[in-house]
Here is the input.
Amino acid sequence: MKRIAIITGASSGLGREFVKILKEKSEIEEIWAIARHQDKLDKLKKQMGRKIRPISMDIADLARIEDLGTMLAENEIEVRYLINNAGYAKFCSYGDLSVTESVDMINVNISGVVAMGLVCIPYMPRGSHIINIASQAAFQPLPYQNLYSSTKAFVRNYTRALNVELKDRGITATAVCPGWLKTRLYDRANIGAAKATRRFCGMTTPDKVARKAVADADRGRDISIYSFYVNFCHIGAKLLPQRVMMKLWLCQQRINPCARPKSENNNSYSRPSQQ
Ligand SMILES: NC(=O)c1ccc[n+]([C@@H]2O[C@H](COP(=O)([O-])OP(=O)(O)OC[C@H]3O[C@@H](n4cnc5c(N)ncnc54)[C@H](OP(=O)(O)O)[C@@H]3O)[C@@H](O)[C@H]2O)c1
Here is the structure.
């Protein structure tokens, strides 16, 4: 049996840091590195070496995840680590995204995570680990990152409950809740919305978060939080009512939800005009 790790979103940011850490583990013989763009995966393989097996796929596409299930069945492998890291944000109001765009974020950030886990679990022996990337955004509702923070709240809750359900199989599941990281996530998230979140406190680098996440998973922890600042936010979100936490967030972002947009046409959900 070849011992493998599967990492989604492996070609950039936090995912790339997980590749660096796991390739140094002697128990891992191959890393199945997943992302959409083949060119970025080829570059990753060139930089990280022979352990990397690039797999170009969109985790929002359930048929491709089922294909991955077939690959797992056809190979003599066991999955020691599954890291569900691929995900993205949009910093805007509900009205800046179409129905298709909104549902795609749910498909990537939630459905992809659930489906990857269900497909991989049969190939995970005792002592193996699922690491799902949530976010500090999972701690409370975040207006103007509403959809993103809600998907991450799902990942956090789902993972912690899954960890309990997997105890009889000897598999751990860890929800990682990073604070703001210096990665390319912001290129995709900033769409020039009129009301957008732009102020990110406690920014850190992804290598530290990845290192702590793997260490916490190896210790069997169901949640991994890096940095004093994110721990402070975590405790704050437990102690204060969500209404207060949302107000603090809006103050920090200097967004007035009552301020009227310059044009109603900016909102995808304006009533269509009668012909
Ligand atoms: N950056 C932050 O501040 C921050 C904070 C908390 C949590 N997080 C979470 O950390 C995770 C990693 O984000 P990051 O900051 O490292 O972002 P990133 O630098 O933009 O990397 C995202 C990775 O995911 C891949 N990807 C995106 N959509 C995909 C899809 N549909 N199917 C397969 N692969 C896909 C990307 O490659 P392709 O484009 O080639 O597909 C890339 O490899 C995300 O879940 C994010 O929500 C980030």
The first strand starts at residue 2 and ends at 8. The first helix runs from residue 13 to 23. The chain has one domain: 2-258. Residues 2-258 form a domain with the Rossmann fold fold (CATH 3.40.50.720).
